[in-house]
Design a protein that fits this description.
The chain has about 280 residues and is mainly beta. It is about 10% helix and about 40% strand. It has four helices and 16 strands.
């Protein structure tokens, strides 16, 4: 008789199982990243808070996300910034880490050339994902998980409500594997990296989350973002109801091809091995 499922407490299983079972386990490894900055500076009671994106534990105290999530040129990390990881669990309860203040080069490590960042987080051990550096094939089924479309709400008491962070997943196939340099919005280009493309849309907040084998849960890549290219533009007739309301008789109709991009985990293998995140 099979043992009843229990939430993972260490590295999650890499055995073949159904996609919902994989997603259920990975949920405990993926977190939303919040930043708190003193507002005004120099005090410790009022903070400006916002959500940055997603990430995941690759070892009990080692957390991987994207460089552009935590240190973009538009919103860079600043000395004294506080961070908190938050996740929404199956029991409809919110888990969150204590606030931590990382120091670049000590417990926050930045790799802009690979659009990667690593936090080393003290405190309790966390469930973490199995890693996969094996070849990725076009047509391979993969999943993605994270906390896209975050929305902060402040309670009338002034406390930040975290319960509206929603864990979301998607499943698809690898459309292509491409070696290319990537340019996050307003950022410097990366080195040439092994990437994967999928033809469903990663949305804001997914960045930094895991891309994993749909059958085993082994993480193969991390979410970078997406690209879209306009492939058709034409003038179309506007319906009479809208013309009557003041719209022009013709309007531009565009069709875009959208591909989401992930950076293969092998780009960070040497660094992750050094942090103790092993197969």
């Amino acid at each position: 008789m099979a043992k009843p499922w229990q939430p993972p407490t260490a590295r999650i299983s890499a055995k073949s199982r159904s996609f919902p079972e994989v997603v259920r386990d990975i949920r405990y490894c993926v977190w939303s990243i919040n930043r708190f900055r003193p507002d005004p500076p120099g005090q410790d009671t009022r903070f400006f808070a916002w959500n940055l994106g997603s990430g995941f534990f690759v070892a009990p105290k080692v957390f991987l996300t994207c460089h552009h999530v935590v240190n973009s040129s538009k919103c860079p990390h600043q000395t004294g910034d506080r961070y908190q990881l938050v996740q929404n669990l199956l029991s409809n309860t919110i888990a969150n880490t204590p606030h931590f203040i990382p120091v670049v080069g000590t417990d926050l490590h930045l790799y802009p050339d690979r659009d990667a960042a690593v936090f080393q987080i003290d405190g309790d051990d966390h469930p973490y994902v199995p890693l996969g550096y094996n070849e990725i094939l076009a047509g391979q089924e993969i999943g993605v998980a994270g906390y896209p479309l975050p929305r902060f709400v402040v309670h009338p008491t002034g406390n930040l409500l975290l319960s509206n962070l929603i864990y979301r997943v998607a499943k698809g196939v690898v459309t292509s594997t491409v070696k290319q340099s990537l340019t996050p919005a307003s950022e410097a280009a990366t080195a040439e990296l092994n990437t994967i493309e999928v033809n469903f849309l990663f949305v804001p907040g997914n960045s930094g989350g895991p891309i994993f084998d749909a059958e085993t849960g082994r993480v193969l890549a991390y979410v970078h973002g997406f690209m879209d290219s306009q492939i058709v533009q034409r003038y179309s007739d506007t319906i009479q109801e809208n013309i009557t309301a003041g719209a022009p008789p013709k309007h531009i109709q565009s069709l875009h091809a959208v591909y989401s991009l992930g950076i293969r985990l092998d780009a960070m293998r040497t660094e992750l091995d050094g942090f103790g995140a092993v197969l």
